[in-house]
Amino acid sequence: LNFILLLLLQFTRSSRSSCRISRSFSELEIPPNFVSSVNFISTLPLLVPRSVLNKNILVLCINLLQLSAKYGPVFTIYLGSQRVVVLYGQDEVKEALIDQGDEFSGRGKLALADKLSKGAGIIFSNGERWKQLRRFALTTLRNFGMGKKSVEERIQEEARFLVERLRNTNKRPFDPTIPLAHAVSNIICSIIFGDRFDYEDQKFLTLIKLIEENNELLRSVLGQLYNFFPTLMDYIPGPHQEVIKNSEELRIFVLERVKMHKESLDLSCPRDFIDAFLIKMEQEQQNGQSEFNTENLVRSTLDLFFAGTGTTSTTLRHGLLILLKYPDIEEKVHEEIDRVVGRSRSPCMADRSQMPYTDAVIHEIQRFVNLVPMSVPHAVTRDTHFRQYVIPKGTTVFPALQSVLHDSREFPKPEQFNPGHFLDENGAFKKSDFFMPFSAGKRICVGEGLARMEIFLILTMILQNFTLKSLVDPRDIDIAPQPSVVVNVPKPYQLCVSPR
Ligand code: HEM
């Protein structure tokens, strides 16, 4: 593996030196803090050689803070031969994603994702296709409040199944990864496929296994390297080839479901996301420009499933670990739940406005966890003037959400977990413009509303029913995420839950 890394490093240097700046770019003013080919080599050690093999996870320890101190809040790095502009700071991220939202709304290239999605679906598409599919997904997710069962009811139902599963641990230690992943996936399953699965259902277990495996592989050394050196990596055997195989299996699963839905479709009564999409396909049959076709249906479904599973369940898993470390904070949440909800009914979204402390704890969990530190790569849709710089069309942009979530102007001691970051002096909930775990602007997470409901309802339901017990002294619990440039995850742990 080290040999491969060395080889790739060598490849980076040579491919970079032969990389030509495009003609249109060369005619524009080169921003002074773009890392030129001369100082690229001196910057390289910051980018790659500190790669750490950590349980098969390659951490490209890009010390962005250090780079931003040297080059300012807008600077360029090279990943392989790919030029990436990093926006490091709340003002810069907000100015780009919100004030110049259109120009920064493109999706950056990620070779592995491009290979899998072929530009279809929501997350990795661009232009008119992206606009149509995104708008459709947003309205459909919203409208599912109108169906037989509201999204809130679907979450409450699933949270009750989860509570039963946790009760069955009978105070024995367990790793919460799988139960949380099953519960969260089932909520998105219920929205896209029309129903939840039994936790023992073999098809469901295979589906989750494939998703989990792909998440892990995408974070793996070779998975990450594929994005920077796709041509070379195509010739190297390894787990990144598994991702492609797993994705094909997932695609076949969804295609089967689509077929089943077609056979029982009632045009006047959509049961779920797939039905709604099939109806839209019918309506747009005569429209030659329509993006509503089977390929985009399968990809959009997989996008929602993929984006909607690991994110929320990892946040919850990290949240439980944080509460294990701070039993006094857990105790205050218990008190608030008992006062506002009681023990005889399930928590509901209307309770949240009367639960400022719990709301602050949840916001602080998401701030601290910093789940997607660099967001998903963006790209500029045209040559873009940004401050005193020009960013050429198509350049990949990393809006560093971590620089916003951990900004010490807004959150004193940002590396510490402190719900006080979201409370005013009277104990009321305090909003913050720096709360940006779902990103901002035109590409902001499609599932934000759903994810926030899930986190609130599942966490309060767990704490209404159980007290969390750590297997080690809380002072020894390390709540820092495992370092990553892709998705932050907590270190593995076990806990016990004791019925209240
Ligand atoms: C704690 C949970 C979650 C977090 C922290 C999160 C975060 C994010 C972030 C940072 C992005 C990239 C935005 C950008 O490009 O600037 C994103 C995109 C996206 N998320 Fe989420 N997400 C979460 C849950 C969900 C859920 C539950 C769903 C499914 C319903 C979902 C669906 C999507 C989709 C489809 C996109 C692509 C949007 C686009 O390209 O237009 N996410 N999410």
Automatic annotation (TrEMBL):
Signal peptide residue numbers: 1-17
Localization (cell): Endoplasmic reticulum membrane; Microsome membrane
UniProt record similarity statement: Belongs to the cytochrome P450 family.
Reaction(s) this enzyme catalyzes, per UniProt: an organic molecule + reduced [NADPH--hemoprotein reductase] + O2 = an alcohol + oxidized [NADPH--hemoprotein reductase] + H2O + H(+)
CDD domains: CYP2C-like
GO molecular function: arachidonate epoxygenase activity; heme binding; iron ion binding; oxidoreductase activity, acting on paired donors, with incorporation or reduction of molecular oxygen, reduced flavin or flavoprotein as one donor, and incorporation of one atom of oxygen
Cofactors demanded by this protein: heme
Taxonomic lineage: Eukaryota, Metazoa, Chordata, Craniata, Vertebrata
Role of this protein: Cytochromes P450 are a group of heme-thiolate monooxygenases. In liver microsomes, this enzyme is involved in an NADPH-dependent electron transport pathway. It oxidizes a variety of structurally unrelated compounds, including steroids, fatty acids, and xenobiotics.
Any one annotated GO CC term: endoplasmic reticulum membrane
Residues that bind heme: C445
Cross-referenced InterPro entries: Cyt_P450, Cyt_P450_CS, Cyt_P450_E_grp-I, Cyt_P450_E_grp-I_CYP2A-like, Cyt_P450_sf, Cytochrome_P450_fam2
Domain of life where this protein originates: Eukaryota
Protein name: unspecific monooxygenase
Enzyme Commission code(s) on record: 1.14.14.1
TM region(s), chain numbering: none
Keywords from the UniProt entry: Endoplasmic reticulum, Heme, Iron, Membrane, Metal-binding, Microsome, Monooxygenase, Oxidoreductase, Signal
4Fe-4S recorded as keyword: no
GO annotation, biological process: epoxygenase P450 pathway; xenobiotic metabolic process
Keyword rRNA-binding part of the UniProt annotation: no
Class of enzymatic activity (EC top level): oxidoreductase
Pfam families noted in UniProt: p450
Chief place where the protein resides: endoplasmic reticulum
Mode of membrane association: Peripheral membrane protein
